[in-house]
Design brief:
The structure holds 2 protein chains of 2 kinds. Chain A is mainly alpha-helical. Chain A has 21 helices and 1 strand. In chain A, helix 3 packs antiparallel against helix 16 and helix 9 packs across helix 20. Chain B is 53% helix and 18% strand. Classes of the chains: A mainly alpha, B alpha+beta.
Chain lengths: 450, 76
C-alpha cells in the first residue's frame, strides 16, 4: 500500500469525521437519513472503494461520538440511536452534570470502537464459509427477514400484511418505467426508492400540511427553549480510561462485545434491553445513569461497526440493520456497486483492516478531542445558527435530484409515491428494516406470484 | 413570546415554521435539481447537483432563523 493512498485515506477520514461531527450534533438526524445519501453520492461519483469505506467508518464513529452531545445538554436525541439514552442523560442533567454525561458517553463510544474493530474482523473471518450459501438464497433471506422483523414490531400483523402490497408498489413502478422506456429493461431503479423510504415519514408529514384542516389542528409551539450551564474547558488530551471508573469501563467493554455478537439485531432494541439490565442493579441515581449511558454508547458504537463490517467482509449482502440502513450504499449502489460486485468483492482483507483502522483512529482522535473540549460552543453554534428547515430542505433537495438522476421527471412522482406509502407504514409501526428488506425481496417476491 | 406567536409545528423532532419550511424546500430543490441540469456536457452532473444542494443549504441557513431560543445559564 503506497503512501499517496494512505494520505488520501487520512484526508477523507478527516473530512468524514469533521462533517459528521457537525451533523451528529444537529437534533433529529436519523443515522440512515444522513449517512446513506452522502455515502451513496460518494460511491456513484466514482471514488475509490477503499476511500469510500474509510470515509464511512470515520463518519459513523464521529457521528456516534457527537450525537450524544444534544442528549446530554438538551435532552434532545441527536439521532434514533441516542433516543434510549435520553432518560439517563436527563438524570445527570437534573443533577447539573451534563458535561459528565458527554464525557462518559464519548468515552463509552471510544471503548466500543476499540473493542469492535478487531472483534468484528475476527467474527467476519469466522463467518466467511457461510457466504456461498447465503448468496444463493439472498432474496429468500430478505423476504423471511422482512417477515421476521415484521413479527418483532408492535403492530405485527399490519407489518406482515404490508409486505406483499408494498413489494407490488415497488415492482409496479419499475415495470411502468420499463414499459414507457424511461429506463432500459436491464436497469432496476433502486437508489431513489431507497431514499424515498428513508424520508417517507417527512414526505407524509409535508403532504399533510397541504390539508388546511389537518394544518389547523396540529399542535403549535413557540420557540424551543434550550438552556445550557457553562462548564470549564478541559485541559490536555482527554483519556477515556481516566474519565470512566473501573466498573464503567468493564461494563462498557462487556456491552461492546455483546453489540458485536448481536450485529444482526436492531441496535436500538439491544440498547434499550441493556439499559434496563444495567440500571436494575444500581441504586444511586447518578452512578446508575453514568454507568448506563457509557455502556449504552459503547454498545451502539460496537453494534454499528460490526453491523457494517461483518456483513461486508464475510457475506457481501447487507444482513444487518446497519448494513441495510446507513451502510447500504457500500453493498448496492447501481451502476457502481451491485450484489455481485461491491466492496466485499473488491477489497482484500488487508484493505478492510487499513480502511477501518485509519477511519476509526482519525475519527476518534479528532472527534473525541473536540467533543470533550468544545462540546458546548459547538452545540451553541448549531442550536443558534442552523435552522431545522435548512436540514430538511437539504435532504429533500438531494432526494429530488437523485430521483431525477435515476429515471427522469416521472420518477420524482414515483419517489413521492414510495415516500407516502413508506411514511404511512412507518407511522403504523412498520420500521425501516421491514421496508428495506421488502425493497430487496420485491423482484423475487412478485416474480414468485406471477 | 406570547400565546398568539405560537405558530411553529414539529417535523422530525424539531420545530419548524411552515412558511420557512416551504421556502427552504423550494430553495434546496431548485438549487439541487438546477445544478444537476445546468451541468455542462461531458461533466459529472452529480457534482454540480451536490454543489447546488450545499449552496441551497447555506442560503436557507442565512434566510431562515432557527426556532430555538438558546441561552447559557450561569447559576451556581
Amino acid at each position: 500500500m503506497d503512501v499517496v493512498l494512505i494520505g488520501q485515506m487520512a484526508a477523507i477520514a478527516l473530512l468524514g469525521a469533521a462533517l459528521y461531527t457537525i451533523i451528529g450534533i444537529a437534533p433529529g438526524t436519523d443515522e440512515t437519513a444522513v449517512l446513506a445519501p452522502v455515502t451513496l453520492v460518494l460511491v456513484i461519483s466514482g471514488l475509490e472503494p477503499i476511500l469510500v469505506l474509510t470515509f464511512f467508518i470515520a463518519a459513523i464513529v464521529a457521528k456516534k461520538l457527537t450525537d450524544s452531545i444534544p442528549v446530554a445538554v438538551a435532552g434532545i436525541p441527536g439521532g434514533v440511536m441516542s433516543a434510549p439514552m435520553v432518560e439517563h442523560a436527563m438524570v445527570l442533567k437534573k443533577y447539573g452534570k451534563p458535561d459528565v454525561s458527554i464525557r462518559k458517553m464519548a468515552s463509552g463510544s471510544v471503548i466500543g470502537t476499540i473493542i469492535s474493530v478487531p472483534l468484528s474482523l475476527l467474527l467476519a473471518t469466522a463467518l466467511v464459509p457461510l457466504a456461498d450459501v447465503i448468496e444463493q438464497y439472498s432474496s429468500q433471506i430478505f423476504f423471511f427477514g422482512a417477515i421476521f422483523l415484521a413479527l418483532m414490531t408492535k403492530n405485527r400483523w399490519f407489518a406482515v400484511l404490508s409486505i406483499v402490497p408494498f413489494a407490488f408498489v415497488i415492482q409496479g413502478l419499475r415495470n411502468l418505467y420499463w414499459e414507457l422506456d424511461i429506463v432500459p429493461e436491464d436497469t432496476t431503479v433502486f437508489t431513489s426508492f431507497f431514499l424515498g423510504i428513508t424520508i417517507g415519514p417527512v414526505i407524509l408529514k409535508l403532504f399533510e400540511l397541504l390539508n388546511g384542516r389537518v394544518r389547523r389542528n396540529l399542535p403549535r409551539y413557540g420557540t424551543k427553549t434550550i438552556e445550557m450551564r457553562r462548564t470549564k474547558a478541559e485541559k490536555g488530551f482527554p483519556n477515556p480510561f481516566k474519565i470512566l471508573n473501573k466498573n464503567e469501563t468493564i461494563s462498557s467493554a462487556v456491552s461492546s462485545v455483546l453489540g458485536v455478537l448481536t450485529f444482526f439485531m436492531s441496535p436500538v432494541g439491544m440498547t434499550i434491553f441493556l439499559g434496563e439490565m444495567i440500571t436494575s442493579r444500581i441504586k444511586d441515581p447518578v452512578k446508575r445513569a453514568a454507568r448506563a449511558i457509557s455502556s449504552m454508547d459503547g454498545l451502539t458504537n460496537a453494534a454499528y461497526l460490526s453491523g457494517t463490517l461483518v456483513p461486508l467482509i464475510a457475506i457481501g449482502y447487507p444482513l444487518s440493520p446497519t448494513a441495510l440502513g446507513p451502510g447500504h450504499a457500500l453493498f448496492n449502489a447501481p451502476p457502481v456497486y451491485t450484489y455481485e460486485h461491491n466492496l466485499h468483492h473488491i477489497l482484500s482483507m488487508n484493505d478492510f483492516v487499513m480502511a477501518t483502522v485509519i477511519g476509526a483512529v482519525i475519527a476518534i482522535g479528532l472527534t473525541f478531542f473536540i467533543t470533550i473540549k468544545y462540546a458546548q460552543p459547538i452545540c451553541a453554534f448549531v442550536f443558534k445558527y442552523i435552522p431545522h428547515e435548512a436540514m430538511l430542505g437539504l435532504f429533500f433537495g438531494l432526494v429530488m435530484m437523485l430521483a431525477y438522476m435515476d429515471a427522469g421527471v416521472l420518477n420524482i412522482a414515483g419517489v413521492l409515491v414510495i415516500g407516502l406509502v413508506a411514511g404511512f407504514m412507518h407511522r403504523k409501526g412498520v420500521n425501516y428494516g421491514v421496508q428495506f428488506m421488502t425493497l430487496y425481496a420485491a423482484p423475487w417476491l412478485v416474480g414468485l406470484i406471477f | 413570546m406570547s400565546a398568539e406567536d405560537k405558530e411553529n409545528i414539529e417535523v422530525w423532532e424539531d420545530l419548524v415554521h411552515i412558511k420557512d419550511l416551504v421556502i427552504s424546500l423550494a430553495i434546496c430543490s431548485v438549487t439541487s435539481l438546477g445544478g444537476y441540469l445546468i451541468a455542462p456536457e461531458g461533466q459529472q452532473p452529480l457534482i454540480y447537483g451536490l454543489i447546488g444542494a450545499v449552496l441551497g443549504f447555506i442560503t436557507s441557513t442565512i434566510v431562515i432563523k432557527p426556532k430555538r431560543n438558546f441561552s447559557y445559564t450561569d447559576e451556581e
